[in-house]
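Holo prediction. Input below; ligand is DQA.
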Amino acid sequence: MKIMIINGPNLDKLGKREPEIYGNKTLRDIMKDMVEYGKFLGADITWTQTNFEGEIIDLINSGDADGYVLNAGAYTHYSYAIRDSIKACEVPVVEVHISNVYAREEFRSKSVLSAVCLGTISGFGIDSYRLGIQALVYHNEED
Ligand code: DQA
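Structure of the complex:
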């Protein structure tokens, strides 16, 4: 199974950005661990990061994976364009967040993406990605 992890805006700053919320690890280190975890589950993981909404949409529309793990960052809370691309996507998308978005500012407790995703994982730190990968692999095995 081919899984693409898409990281949205400001996730390139992990390690430096609000470490009390997002931890000390860089995105590169986290993604390295996820590639290894994918191998353990028999999944082929690729990953990317972009600060551009349209690029996230192009990646989802590319159909270049059997499933996506998406941390859309702040776009989660207002991007109807990303929502539409997920809705039109023929493969499952799992929404993930490092932090517990429901325990933070009010605006973060609304996701415009959740309803069109396979499911949402929020608040488990870096393990949110791990759980997202696992959810896609298990879902794929059920089919
Ligand atoms: C985030 C939560 C979002 O509200 C925030 O804008 C992010 C990161 C998370 O992983 O916890 O950029 O998606």
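The chain has five helices and five strands. That is the main takeaway for now.
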